[in-house]
User: Fold this.
Amino acid sequence: KGFFAINQIVTGWISAGLKISRKRKMSLQRVERSFCMKRKNKALITGINGFIGSSLEGYIKDKYPSWEIYGIDKSTRSSKIRFNIDIADKKKLKALLKKIKPRYIFHFAGIVSNKDLNELLSLNLMTTYHLLSAIKEIKGYSPRIIIPSSAACYGRVSKRNIPIKESCPLKPINLYGFSKMTQEELSLMFARQGQDVIIARIF
Assistant:
């Protein structure tokens, strides 16, 4: 169904492609092509003005110009393709999703911090909840949702466990790692309910 495996956690973006490549005896180039080269795909990037969001937008525009890219960010000016809305506003979020019906949603909205747990849970955990619950409430709509987690979920890893495997226990040692771990668990809960959710732990 595309570049990312279904309903599983992958460590690093490339690992997802390699996993499918080994399973289907395909080259990584062919796997990527199967994901990205379809014409008139639509993608929604939350947090599109951030480092990862803006980088992904530039990459897709450069490599796959036929894609329609939409963005949500509280720091952007609203336009036909950019939307300044609060993800916690479910009414506006659902209206937007129904209007553009993106096939892929890259959920990059959030923060990297270790200072305020309430802020971390609000922006990393609750935004994910609002997005996934809004999608769930739209009948007949099942996009693929890609959620970036973090290697911070692993905490300290002994040398004998290097390179890190996805099965490595999650033992975060800071608030950011804890917030991303809870974000993962929430996302996996929605995946078990039938949503097409992919999590990638980024290093």
